[in-house]
């Protein structure tokens, strides 16, 4: 697939008479798009198979919406990114289901305040987080993406608060899943998150090759 994407970027460069820098930017964008599609498919299929579709989908939607503007750690290949994302969000789905029930709910409700505060601080200090393929250096763009990232957090906070006012227990699950998804994504833009991302990426690479 990577060879196909590289060929597509090269073909576009030839047709539009683009420079090498524009070709690299387009290739990076194609890889991000393919990674997103593959990750979404992996999460949805695995979650549906395990009966965790609702919980996992809420966590994925929350984390994914923040990721589009905040950036974050990436795996070296789309396949490994899909594996890591599927395992991470499935874990959040399992946790969200358990945390929404008594007696864990009362404890999590207090603990979640730390998750939200941590997410806000991470976004305020580190968003947007670029990569070595596509660094973000323009000050105006940095400020704009940081404001949008904080607005995404605020929007989810209002949504989850509204969900908790509903009489059904569905609101608890949504709140738990969204809180976990946002906290996970916010952690990936921190220096520690980048280090963890490299560790997980290397582990999955070795696992796939059968050396673990």
Query: What is the typical, i.e. mean, pLDDT?
Result: 84
Main sheet characteristics: none
- Series of secondary-structure elements, N-terminal to C-terminal: HHHHHHHH
Number of helices, where a helix is a run of at least 4 consecutive DSSP H or I residues: 8
Our estimate of the beta-strand percent is: under 5%
Helix content: over 70%
Shape: globular
Low-confidence stretches: none
Number of beta strands: 0
Quickly give the structural class.
mainly alpha
Distance linking N and C termini = 25 Å
Nearest-angstrom radius of gyration?
A: 18 Å
Set out the fold topology.
Elements: H1 2-16, H2 20-49, H3 53-70, H4 78-99, H5 104-126, H6 139-164, H7 170-187, H8 191-209
Helix pairs in contact: 1-2, 2-3, 2-4, 3-4, 3-6, 3-7, 4-7, 4-8, 5-6, 5-7, 6-7
Account of the 3D structure:
By secondary structure, the protein is mainly alpha-helical. Helices cover 81% and strands 0% of the residues. The protein is built from 8 helices and no strands. Helix 5 packs parallel to helix 7 (170-187). The longest helix is centred in the N-terminal third of the chain and has 30 residues, at 20-49. The radius of gyration is 18 Å and the shape is globular. The two termini are 25 Å apart.
